[in-house]
Write a structure and sequence with these properties.
Layout (H helix, E strand, L loop, with lengths): L9 H17 L16 E10 L2 E10 L14 E2 L5 H18 L4 E9 L5 E7 L12 E2 L3 E2 H9 L16 E2 L1
Antiparallel strand pairs: 1-2, 1-4, 3-8, 4-5, 6-7
């Protein structure tokens, strides 16, 4: 996450603001707003969804196994399927349904990053109406090797949708 810096006190906040100002100027970003949020501990996941006529389909949950505790939050590896219990998986899925309903999203891809605290509470920390970036989409294939991008375009053009379930025989993958 570019420009995200953890600061636990005033001194660290001042240093973090200097860094974010530098990032904003180097990237020639027009938006000079800095967002300050509370830190949420826990295990981080990226959840890929496709919403079709209001129904939420979980395409994949990527585990981020390296602890992202700061002060910087470099993402190093993603693993899918995640190494979590069925009940933890279900809690994440249920929270995704709540996010989509609250945002009134009816169609399209969603990329939601969450933190799951040790007490099991799921916190969405980044919500975007897009699919996952980088090489991660390369490991997601559906019904006869249909790519994630083909699935999204089919949904956007209101074409017949292939089976959204992923092949069960595919081994775990890490990016």
């Amino acid at each position: 996450s570019i420009g995200v810096v953890r600061a636990d006190n005033l001194k660290e906040l001042k240093e973090a603001l200097e860094i974010t100002d530098l990032v904003i100027s180097e990237m020639a970003l027009n938006d000079q707003v800095t967002l300050i949020e509370s830190y949420i501990g826990g295990t981080e996941f990226a959840v890929e969804l496709l919403v079709v006529e209001g129904k939420v389909h979980v395409l994949a949950i990527f585990e981020k196994p390296d602890p992202l505790e700061g002060p910087y939050f470099e993402e190093t590896i993603y693993i899918t399927p995640p190494r979590i219990s069925k009940s933890d998986y279900e809690v994440i899925v249920a929270s995704m349904d709540l996010c989509i309903k609250a945002l009134e999203i009816s169609n399209g891809p969603m990329h939601i990053e969450v933190r799951v605290r040790p007490d099991g509470v799921v916190f969405p920390i980044d919500i975007a109406t897009r699919s996952i970036g980088g090489n991660c989409s390369d490991v997601l294939n559906f019904d006869g090797m249909v790519s994630l991008e083909t699935l999204i375009i089919s949904n956007a053009l209101n074409l017949e949708m292939p089976n959204i379930s992923r092949r069960k025989t595919r081994p775990p993958a890490s990016i």
